[in-house]
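Sample log: N-acetyltransferase domain-containing protein.
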Amino acid sequence: MKAKEITLDDDLHSLVGQINCASWDEANEMSEYDYESLKRYLERSDTIFIACNEESEQGTVLLGIASSRIEMKPYRMDLWLYVDEVDVCVDQRNKGAGKLIMQTLIEIAKKEGCKQVWLGTEVDNAPANALYRSLDPDEVAEVIGYTYETDE
């Protein structure tokens, strides 16, 4: 099993195909991926996209993906990594992919000089909460989230 930071040098067409053919459930809130959107996402200097794969007799199998970005505080110029999504394929869970993805993101955050990694999940998402707690967080807080649609 290997988790890798995806760059513009990777085969994005193949990755998009793997993502769109993978088994996701409602917990993933997965949207259809397309080459152009992923390419534009990766062109930004502040984004980090991780793919976790495993080699099998059938070839490379996608286990999960994650998207995140490096942010800067408006004071002291502290950097922090905001993890937007960590998604593990339904038929690939309980293999350690989510943990490897998070460990990879934490290592990238350290390498980039981030003071902190931040992510959130739903209170009732027991598997995600178990994963994140297993990584020995410095703080666990209950957060209420709000969404505002802009009709754009």
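Observation: The mean pLDDT is 93.
Observation: Residues 97-111 form the longest helix (15 residues).
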